[in-house]
Amino acid sequence: MRVVLAEDLFLLRDGLTRTLREHGCEVVAVDNGPSLRQVLLDETVPAPDVAVVDVRLPPTFTDEGLQAALEARRRRPGLPVLVLSQYVEQLYANELLAGGEGAVGYLLKDRVTDTAQFVDAVRRVAAGGTVMDPQVISRLLSRGEARGTTDSLTARERDVLELMAAGRSNAAIASTLHISESAVAKHTAGIFAKLGIGPSADDNRRVLAVLAHLKR
């Protein structure tokens, strides 16, 4: 798997590069926005399997990384992008999801200290999946516009919804919440009914449907 990694902090960039290489990835690491654009938009080489991108990169330290990733997705539709951020920045999450396609992720940097979780997220996004940090999901759930519908959910349904929107399968949700898969299926049906979303057996479409509804 070919990975482009954009991170300006040397220790974090070096650590993530080593981790990915230890798990069999070929990594091209850059530390600023212009270099990231050059690598992602170079049509003389195949597109990477996934781009792991810090939102804030030199020289502006605003949204240089995100904008480079979005431009690359416009030029190379479907390019998998996993965004890293220090904080929950809802605007950036919305921009990333605006295309309504999979192969996207948004993780807080705190999560990358868990090697297994980070590598799993990279692989899932590279495979076309959607991975969202639980804190981002919580922020979307708490938005005033969404409150009118999500207030009708029970506490357990909200737990299931957060895990569902984070890309977890029914089996993984059941294991995390210590309930049966049939109970998860029941809660999922209730969530879709209350949010007015058509059900889907495809995990990624299910995640995207929920996120699309919550970010309206």
UniProtKB/TrEMBL annotation:
InterPro entries: CheY-like_superfamily, NreC/VraR/RcsB-like_REC, Sig_transdc_resp-reg_C-effctor, Sig_transdc_resp-reg_receiver, Tscrpt_reg_LuxR_C, WalR-like. Pfam families: GerE, Response_reg. The modification 4-aspartylphosphate is found at residue 54. Gene3D superfamilies: 3.40.50.2300. Residues 146-216 form the HTH luxR-type domain. The keyword Transcription applies. It comes from the Bacteria. This is LuxR C-terminal-related transcriptional regulator. It comes from Streptomyces toxytricini (Actinomyces toxytricini).
